[in-house]
Amino acid sequence: MNASHKSSSAVRSYAIVTGTSSGIGLAVAEKLLKEGWQVHGIDRSPAVIRHAHFQACTADLTQPTQIDDLLKEILTTPPQALVHAAGMLRVGALDEFDPQDGQLMWQLHVDAAVRLGQRVLPLMRQARQGRLVMIGSRVSGGMPGRSLYAASKSALIALAKSWAAECVRDGITVNVVSPAATATSMLLDPQRAGTPPKLPPIGRLIQAEEVAELVHFLMRPEAAAITGQDVVICGGASLNG
Question: Among residues 14, 37, 149, 163, which one is catalytic?
Fold first, then answer.
């Protein structure tokens, strides 16, 4: 585990973003950097971002000790935002599903969110400001062949609502952003062979950059009254229930 540190003389808003080596996490980090943020990117894979205000941190978020050790190293000041975008998808009907895959998704999506939240939210409450956004999924309500993935993403909504209620008087918002099928490398995972994503009514996949734009909006002062919500980017997939 390591973190590469770069300094800046300018005072910048500071965010921690997980899963920044690809997909939505990468798009979020790039959007924040473009908007003038300083970003700590946490990922198991090598960093792909090269930017003066990006600090790459290596950790396996399914390993609690690695999360705890890294946070001890990087939480020298309270972050203004935490975005938990790291994710994985394993598919299959319940009678053919590998329980270990379900456990890994729970560890990455839920357990990691809890460990991050337990360390970061108290700092935000002391500072009386902060934004926490977790990336959920349109399928959190349930879908054939996605039961354990859906269960782990559904848990994020319960966490967000609970934490939002705990922090609502402290100037902190906690939300989930739940996209439908998004054009990321996750869709190319061999584990999902034979189960292609279903295009939403707009006729195309959601773009990671579209998700990042919404995440960024939820960090803006104008979004201070939005908390405890599951904000869905569905391309029309929710129109028929």
Answer: 149
In the three-class reduction of DSSP (H, G, I as helix; E, B as strand; rest coil), residue 119 is classed as helix
Residues pairing with 67 in the sheet: none
Q: 98 forms bridges with which residues in the sheet?
A: none
Best CA proximity match to 212, nearest among 33, 85, 55, 24: 24
Q: Distance between terminal CA atoms of the chain?
A: 44
| Residue among 215, 211, 212 nearest 223 (CA) | 215
- Phi and psi at 43, nearest 5°, equal -160, 155
Q: How do residues 147-186 score in pLDDT, each as one tens digit?
A: 889 999 999 999 999 999 999 999 999 999 999 888 887 6
Mean pLDDT value of segment 97-113? 91
Provide mean pLDDT across the span 97-107. 88
Counting Cα atoms < 13 Å in the Cβ hemisphere of 33 gives: 18
Respond yes or no: is residue 149 known to be catalytic.
Answer: yes
Q: In whole angstroms, how large is the CA radius of gyration of the chain?
A: 17
SS3 187: helix
Q: How far apart are CA 100 and CA 24, in angstroms?
A: 24
pTM for the whole structure:
0.89
Please give the Cα distance from 41 to 59 (Å, whole number): 10
User: What is the residue whose two structure tokens read 């560890």?
Assistant: 107
Helix H or strand E encompassing 32: helix 23-34
